[in-house]
Amino acid sequence: MKKNISIGMALIPILGLIGSAVASIFIWDASMHIPLLIGVAAAAIVAVMSGWSWTEIEKMMVSGVARALPAVFILLIIGIIVGTWIASGVIPTMIYYGLSLIHPSLFVPMVALVTGIVSITLGSSFTSIATIGLAFMVIGEGLGFSGGLVAGAVISGAFFGDKLSPLSDTTNIAPAMADTDLFSHIKHMLWDTIPAFLIAIIMYWVVGLFFVPKSTVNTNTIDLITDGLQDIFVIHPLLLLMPVLVIFLMMKRLPAIPTLIGVSFLGGVLAVIVQGISVSEVVQIMTNGFSVTSDIDALDSLLNSGGLMSMLSTVAILIIATALGGILETTGAFDALTAKIMDKVRTTGSLISSTILSTFVIAFASGEQFLSIILPARTFTKKYKEMGIDTKNLSRSVEAAGTVGINLVPWGITAVFAMNILGPSPGEFIPFSFFVFLVPLINIIFGFTGWTITKKQYPETKEIYRRD
């Protein structure tokens, strides 16, 4: 006989995950792989104690991972794209022209804008923070700007790009978990991401006016990077047509996997034609990523990236997290934690707010992006369908809190990473991470006003709920 899991029992795997995640971040200095495995083990023990057999638990994990397989394939292709786009000069060209836009009087808003351009091209907030973000911190210090302000602008730009890029892991995971498609998800996120970023840019401009740059401006870092890019690559504005092509294909809503495969191979062709790289080198870059050694550490960190192999660690985290999600979902453990919230959801406003709140709960509990997206997305999918609301609203909401809002968690992986790379503490840069505050807020406003909320009737829909 299988027993209903109580709230106390449901908390065991969550608390196990929280404890091990905190230890991993502050003591072990390790990734989230082991804490997630500890969460899986705890969830399995709770399931056995509640009457589930090990064979059934294995099926739960397999079911959870199976839903993520399209995202797994996309992530592997993304690794190839990053490698070929660097080798072809596409990403270096984006960085080169982005850095050329920097002007001291508009430094702070340009930090957010250029970091956003780089991040949407790379599809990685962490890479953008560790490379172009670090360079901006050095430049900002030379100009006399607050470290917390510059770091906040870097984080806003990095997660703006991460949120919209079809190359981003979280951007692929959210629609896969919410039962919608990648390009519909990205197109729907334009409604909250673009306004939030524009408002943030204006706020950075206003705040930046209170800082008077020093009379002597040291732009050596920018010059070193741009000169280094020109020495290694053929930089040409026509290469910017590549990201334009991706945006066009995204708007056409073509199937994601064949589209991204085509884009990755086109990058390889450009590497051969434009940069003179041999076919064998392109294949090696597709596998292991681009590699170069120069006299500029920041440039090497920026360029030594990509390749299918580079995504295996991310794929491993995704597999473990979805296996945990499969157990918590099938056994009803996460339902037990969210039952009271779900019972009170009757309108679109309360649904969107509850989704974002639940995502923040997981984010503050685990400090981990993937789990913050996966668990709420899987839990709320049925509710969205029952209420006749398109699940792309769900994927947008979990991204708002799980991908972007998680930066408000001082002990979260993203905030700790930013602190280690950029220098200022979370307490210094979180107040200036304007984009991070605005995205969840805009989604809540959309929920209560009905703006941009798309309706859709699903075959399994049994009830029609009214909207606020």
Automatic annotation (TrEMBL):
Regions crossing the membrane: 7-28, 34-54, 66-88, 94-122, 134-160, 194-212, 232-251, 257-277, 308-328, 348-377, 398-423, 429-453
UniProt domain Na+/H+ antiporter NhaC-like C-terminal: residue ranges: 157-451
Localization per record: Cell membrane
Cellular component terms per the entry's GO annotation: plasma membrane
Xref: InterPro entries: Na/H_antiport_NhaC, Na/H_Antiport_NhaC-like_C, NhaC_Na-H+_Antiporter
Keyword annotations from UniProtKB, A to Z: Antiport, Cell membrane, Membrane, Transmembrane, Transmembrane helix, Transport
One example GO MF annotation: antiporter activity
Protein topology in the membrane: Multi-pass membrane protein
PANTHER family: MALATE-2H(+)/NA(+)-LACTATE ANTIPORTER, MALATE-2H(+)_NA(+)-LACTATE ANTIPORTER
Family, as annotated: Belongs to the NhaC Na(+)/H(+) (TC 2.A.35) antiporter family.
Name of the protein in its database record: Na+/H+ antiporter NhaC
Species whose genome carries this gene: Lederbergia lenta
